Amino acid sequence: MNAPLLDALQGALRPLADPPQGPGWNHAEMAELLGDAPRRPAAVLLGLREGVQPRLVLTVRNDSLQSHAGQVAFPGGRSDPDDADAVATALRESEEEIGLARHWVTPLGFLDRFETISGYTVTPVVARVAASALLRPAPAEVAEVFEVPLEFFLEPANLRRYTMEFRGHRRPMVEFVHGGHRIWGATAAMLLNLLTRMGRA
């Protein structure tokens, strides 16, 4: 991974020793829609495959899943009681969903927590993924794994902003479209948080 980009990325993250706590950065918006009921903890992995042009690993969820079927997502999911922390959740879920063995992953830090419409508070874990890492999607959960160059998300022209009606509320949204994949919802919002923390949005 080129050094200037890695430095800019690392400088934008919350350190591993200081994981984010409390509500998500979008709590006020979610409170209007969901109230203040406790959110369930979850974590996702923003894995950057190393190379001359680092690429972000994304999945397409299986069409048969009960929630967010067919959507683009980061590997991850709800925290289990046995998970030591958000990093453990993200690594376990990534291994289960896309066969990403932990020895290929080097966690770098965190983005801000994000609350989802499905009632989770998600901790995004940013990590380096070895160039040689093998990925084997679990067909029951993941229809496809694909990768997008990080530079694509850093290009302002590739960020689209729009407004969506949901339960009587007008919600500001963002999305990206790459190679026929529409990246929107929580996944795009977490990418926007990354861009904002990097001073690129």
Automatic annotation (TrEMBL):
Q: Which InterPro entries match?
A: CoAse, NUDIX_hydrolase-like_dom_sf, NUDIX_hydrolase_dom
Q: Which domain of life is it from?
A: Bacteria
Which positions fall inside the Nudix hydrolase domain? Answer: 38-170
Cofactor(s) named in the record: Mn(2+); Mg(2+)
Q: Does the keyword Hydrolase apply?
A: yes
The UniProt entry, under SUPFAM superfamilies, shows: Nudix
Annotated keywords? Hydrolase, Magnesium, Manganese, Metal-binding
Q: Could you cite one Gene Ontology molecular function of this protein?
A: coenzyme A diphosphatase activity
Which PANTHER family has this protein been placed in?
A: MITOCHONDRIAL COENZYME A DIPHOSPHATASE NUDT8, NUDIX HYDROLASE
Q: What name has this protein been given in UniProt? A: 8-oxo-dGTP pyrophosphatase MutT (NUDIX family)
